[in-house]
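BACKBONE GEOMETRY TOKENS:
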Amino acid sequence: MVEQVHNKTFDAGVGDFTVLADRLDKVEFTQPYIESGLSMIVQEKNEQLTWMFIKPLTWEMWAASGGVLVYTMLIIWFLERPSNPEFSGPLKNQIGTATWFAFTSLFFSHREKIHNNLTRVVVVMWLFVVLILTSSYTANLSSMLTIQRLKPNVTDIEMLKRTNSKVGLDGDSFVVTYMERVLQFNSQNIITISNEFNYTEAFKNGSISAAFLELPYAKVFMNHYCKGYTATTPTFRFGGLGFIFQKCSPIARDFTKAILELLEDGELKSLEDTWLTPNRDCPNNASSDVPDSLSVKNFMGLYVISSATSTICLLLSFTILLKKFQQHEDAYLGNASDESVWNRTVRKARFLYNKEFNVPSRAPSIVDVPELTSSQGEHVITSTPQEHQLQASTPAQTESGPLH
């Protein structure tokens, strides 16, 4: 039609003529009455992911969350074990109680009482982490489940070219030349389809993997087949659609003025909605990117604060316990310079675990035993095991000795 108007076979052409740079040298275009661009239509991906619940978080995020959970669980166990009866019993029962407490806190359903103030600080920080983590996980999973049905089988043009996939488009349109020269598609992979309503059959029999239509035609197609197909937002835009006239035609200006008035009044938008997309039941099928999985860097600050809080509480608890141990050492055992480093280390470890002052392989001498003052002010000296043995043997010796 453009050539026929150019060679003056026709005075004008009224229809959907795309405004292109090489056509401006041949004919006179009016103001475009609708935008134009290349839109890719693909079938929706109906794949159901079995492990969909894992995708909101990356594997690194799952590992980091598990590590923080285990670390917090051990801190709670260490702080609560001496004073909390619910953390008593064999070691496996203590670890089981701590694990149960940590996991039930993920759902805010823990019932165990907390006795240590340092543990309360750790638990408050951990519950804050759980609140942020579960809220973010729920929001991201909801977004993935909502957008998943709009996820196309083919994500971009480069994927089509890389896999040598067949694409369908209008053979009478300039789009064929554009696909070959600009987008560098192999001509053997381009399938000509005469009517936009024939694309569905080509999709069903596998003849094409994608269809490329100009934006107005893509809107008409998606209006009829809003379920099962997805149209991408045009990334390659053209000059729009307009009417054509012979060069220097005075009528072109009048048409341009009329189109501008319709655009300013909103009439063209109303006509587009009425004739191109009359079906109001079809949602917007422009595909959106699926939300990315949450990674460790999104929660690094939160994890550092939680771990640092737990570590500080642990160090404070160690400091308090070691101070008590040292006070006991100074009060009851003195310097004990002849004791080995190993025995002292073992006794300290037993105290940290059992809160008991055990002295391995060493009996206290009489020098190590301090004087205790009774309530009446009298001095009482605690006898050693050797003194008990001596006192027990004295009567026997007296009975067996000679009588004077």
